[in-house]
Specification:
The protein has 321 residues and is an alpha/beta fold. The chain folds into 2 domains: 203 residues, DHBP synthase, CATH 3.90.870.10; 88 residues, 3-Layer(aba) Sandwich (Rossmann fold). The chain is built from 11 helices and 15 strands. An 11-stranded mixed beta sheet has the order 1-8-2-3-7-4-6-5-9-10-11, sandwiched between helices. Strands 12-15-13-14 form a 4-stranded parallel beta sheet, with helices on both faces. It binds threonylcarbamoyladenylate (TXA) and magnesium ion (MG). Magnesium ion binds next to loops.
Length: 321
């Protein structure tokens, strides 16, 4: 262990001091907690890969405080990207744009584009606006495991590996940002999120989902967000529970409880079709279920559109081994 204990607090001055000294700090965002370092310092960035046990071939998102700061690290911004930036940022949207010389190769894993986003969480936005460098930050979980939406999730997963977690409460959106790229005047969606395909199309017209099996970046690989307990995603929970043939199952469902299992073994992600609430509760539900020694976690698939599709994507990857 590099540190005796990872501290949790809301001392922005202390977070700044650590980051200026090229140390890592977990930061709250509106999506999930990130594990941040000075994006301009290759040595500081390499600490992120070590703490997360993340392959160096998997690039990181750079977080900035303003659109002007963003302009300083990219070569150009296509018209559609500007429209999306003006509409959705600060907020849960990441754009892939051609990087300039200021961005170290380690951040993009050698790719020509850099992922950039301006988060809207007030504490982190204020931190970003007070420091003279942007922050590289992946989600603050060990590689492949469930993303954190509370400071305590980060502490449980990375205790002793980082000095400090800046506590900004529970993440409101709860799933990672939507990622968009721009190619031959087309807008391509690489990762779905709270800002949906429909939201983006309202601003820039037709978009394309990147469904190619060839991953743009290794981080978009299939197995991801996965609990240690085997997870089964299904349309038909009754049949799945019967097929599994055991009763120590944790069930994550929505709108109403299932009669087959005791309610104490179930988590309702949301009621009354409130999908936004479902996204906000998703990772906390997975963390909780994974902490109970169940033989299996069964999750009911959501209707596959809008935020439902973004949640299903996480769950599908969580079910891959
Ligand atoms: O909401 C979020 O985006 C959170 C918070 C902390 O901002 N961050 C996050 O980072 O989800 P991470 O590293 O867990 O996921 C970033 C994804 C990965 O799949 C990575 O491969 C992809 O973005 N990515 C990053 N840079 C890229 C690049 N230059 N080209 C293509 N994909 C990239
Ligand atoms: Mg991640």
């Amino acid at each position: 262990m590099k540190y005796k204990e990872t501290l949790i607090g809301s001392d922005i001055e202390y977070a700044k001091k650590l980051l200026i000294n090229n140390e890592l700090v977990a930061i709250p965002t509106e999506t999930v907690y990130g594990l941040a370092s000075n994006a301009f310092d290759a040595g500081a960035v390499s600490q992120i890969f070590i703490a997360k046990n993340r392959p160096k071939t998997n690039p990181l998102i750079i977080h900035l405080g303003t659109i002007d700061q963003l302009k300083e690290i990219v070569k150009e911004i296509p018209e559609a990207a500007l429209v999306l930036l003006n509409k959705f940022t600060p907020g849960p949207l990441t754009l892939l744009l051609p990087k300039n010389h200021l961005v170290p190769e380690i951040v993009t894993a050698g790719l020509p584009d850099v992922a950039v986003r301006i988060p809207s969480h007030p504490l982190t936005l204020s931190l970003l606006q007070q420091i003279s460098f942007p922050l590289a930050a992946p989600s603050a979980n060990p590689f492949g495991y469930i993303s954190p939406t509370k400071a305590i999730h980060v502490q449980r997963m990375l205790n002793g590996k980082i000095p400090y977690i800046l506590d900004g409460g529970e993440c409101k959106s709860g799933i990672e940002s939507t990622i968009v790229g721009f190619k031959d005047n087309k807008v391509i969606i690489y990762r779905q999120g709270i800002i949906t395909k429909e939201d983006i199309e309202d601003c820039v017209g037709t978009t394309y989902l990147n469904e190619s099996k060839k991953t743009v970046a290794p981080g978009m690989m299939d197995s991801h967000y996965a609990p240690h307990t085997p997870l089964y995603l299904t349309d038909n929970i009754e049949t799945m529970i019967k097929d599994l043939g055991v009763s120590d199952i944790g069930l994550i469902t929505y709108n109403e409880y299932c009669n087959t299992l005791p309610e104490t073994q179930q988590i309702l992600l949301f009621k009354s079709d409130n999908y936004k609430m479902g996204a906000a509760n998703l990772y906390a539900a997975l963390h909780e279920m994974d902490s109970k020694s169940y033989k299996a976690i069964v999750v009911k698939k959501l209707p596959h559109h809008g935020i439902g599709a973004a949640i299903n994507d996480r769950l599908w990857r969580a079910s891959m081994k």
